[in-house]
Write a structure and sequence with these properties.
Blueprint lengths: L5 H6 L7 E2 L2 E2 L1 E2 L10 H14 L9 H20 L8 E4 L2 H16 L5 E5 L8 H10 L2 E5 L9 H7 L4 E7 L11 H10 L3 E5 L11 H4 L3 E5 L10 E5 L1 H5 L11 E3 L6 E2 L13 H14 L3 H20 L4 E4 L8 E6 L4 H10 L2 E2 L1 E3 L4 H6 L5 E5 L6 H18 L1
Parallel strand pairs: 3-15, 5-6, 5-7, 7-8, 8-9
Antiparallel strand pairs: 1-2, 4-10, 9-10, 11-12, 13-14, 14-17, 16-17
Bound molecules: pyridoxal-5'-phosphate.
The site of pyridoxal-5'-phosphate has 13 residues, from helix 4.
């Protein structure tokens, strides 16, 4: 593997060279959203300056080219997920919309009174609330696998909660709040053996390591473009094409129809079946540019991030009064922590004064926080463009906060 040149990579991200509050920006809020490389920024500019047209059905050249670029982006997404066939890749607004689509559409077709939906305590609200809504509509029940004190899914408990009533298991590949990497292939195998469908929320995995959907064996996989170095407003739901084709439309209108007649309308198959109306054309093209940029770096980026995680864990353990929340052996570079005597929001505000951007609060994981007896944590989440020097800036800033609040 070639040595990872973090300085060169950083030059690809203009925002990383900026200052906030008079200090060089130390951006450690990557789990909320990632920064964008020039490859994406320039691709969006070129699209709008030279290529903009609506897709599908246009007979003029620009429309044909925009359609080709949009469909080629679908192919890039398929390659990113390790898929040979792009047909199951549906462009959506983000992970939240992808999960809502499955909960609503698949749920309407498959959930009945007495059925169970198995989640885990690690889930983001985006992978809880749509299932609560779907369960209420069907008279089904949400069942939740607990987490261990280290922040891992309790696998024996997960297994024991699976039953012939379990219609679907929906869980995150990686926890946004703690960084835990779940044994997603094993969880999928267990759920499938019990006869359940499986949805994996890959929002926090996609930016950190190679995702191989066929190897996972799941039925649905979702991720958001903006957390994977692409634009906001675009994301992907992958579903097994045969499942998608059998699901009722989620939204209806133009583009998703085969034939419209006041006597009755017929719908297309996936992916168009779930892409009603003009899609986010530039978003899809921008996402493809992000993935094209990221894919060749992926392995080296992962190794660099693991180095950052190890260094930050060691260094932060030395900050007096700091407790790391979530100590699973398999993690991406996310550090959640509390600082004795300081409210997480105060920690975030004081770090901001040093140019360090972190996130504080419940991280859209209220049930997880409750299970740890916490209202919230401070969270530093790294990307491959972060550096060991930035780990040191974070640690020194925390030491300063500690002195001010102790
Ligand atoms: N799932 C996880 C694990 C997340 O971290 C997030 C966002 O933080 C989401 C789902 C929702 O993603 P989005 O807001 O892009 O739809």
């Amino acid at each position: 593997m070639p040595a990872f040149d973090v300085a060169a990579v950083r030059r690809d991200f203009p925002i990383l060279g900026t200052s906030v509050r008079g200090r060089p920006l130390v951006y450690l809020d990557n789990a909320a959203t990632s920064q964008k490389p020039l490859a994406v920024i320039r691709r969006l500019e070129r699209y709008y300056a030279q290529e903009n047209a609506n897709v599908h059905r246009g007979v003029h050249l620009l429309s044909e080219q925009a359609t080709a670029a949009y469909e080629s982006a679908r192919g890039t997404v398929a390659a990113f997920l390790g898929l040979k066939d792009a047909r199951g890749c549906v462009f959506v607004r983000g992970a939240t919309e992808g999960i809502n689509l499955v909960a609503e559409s698949w749920g309407r077709a498959h959930l009945r009174a007495g059925d169970e939906i198995l989640l885990t305590h690690l889930e983001h609200h985006a992978n809880i609330v749509p299932w609560q809504v779907a369960a209420e509509r069907a008279g089904a029940r949400v069942v939740v696998a607990p987490v261990t004190p280290r922040g891992e899914v309790d696998l024996p408990a997960f297994r024991s909660l699976l039953s012939p009533r379990t219609r679907i298991a929906a869980f995150s590949h990686v926890s946004n709040a703690l960084g835990t990497v779940n044994p997603a292939a094993e969880m999928t195998r267990l759920a499938k053996a019990a006869g359940a469908a499986v949805l994996i929320d890959g929002c926090q995995a996609a930016a950190h390591f190679k995702v191989d959907v066929p190897a996972l064996g799941c039925d649905f996989y979702v991720f958001s473009g903006h957390k994977t170095f692409g634009p906001t407003g675009i994301g992907v739901l992958w579903g097994r094409p045969e499942l998608l084709d059998a699901m009722p439309p989620y939204q209806s209108g133009g583009d998703m129809i085969r034939k419209v007649d006041f006597a009755g309308t017929t719908f297309r198959e996936a992916p168009e079946r779930f892409e009603a109306g003009t899609p986010d054309i530039s978003g899809a093209i921008g996402l493809a540019a992000a993935l094209d940029y990221f894919m060749p770096l992926q392995a080296a980026a992962h190794a660099h991030e693991q180095e950052l995680l190890a260094a930050a864990t060691e260094r932060l353990k030395g900050v007096k009064g700091l407790t790391i929340v979530g100590q699973a052996p398999e993690k991406v570079a996310v550090l959640s922590f509390t600082l004795e005597g300081a409210h997480p929001h105060d920690v975030g505000t004081l770090l901001d004064a040093d140019g360090v951007a972190i996130r504080t609060g419940h991280h859209c994981c209220m049930p997880l926080m409750k299970s740890f007896g916490l209202a919230g944590t401070a969270r530093a989440s790294f990307a491959f463009y972060n550096t060991l020097e930035e780990v040191e800036v974070l640690a020194r800033s925390l030491e300063r906060v500690r002195k001010m609040t102790a």
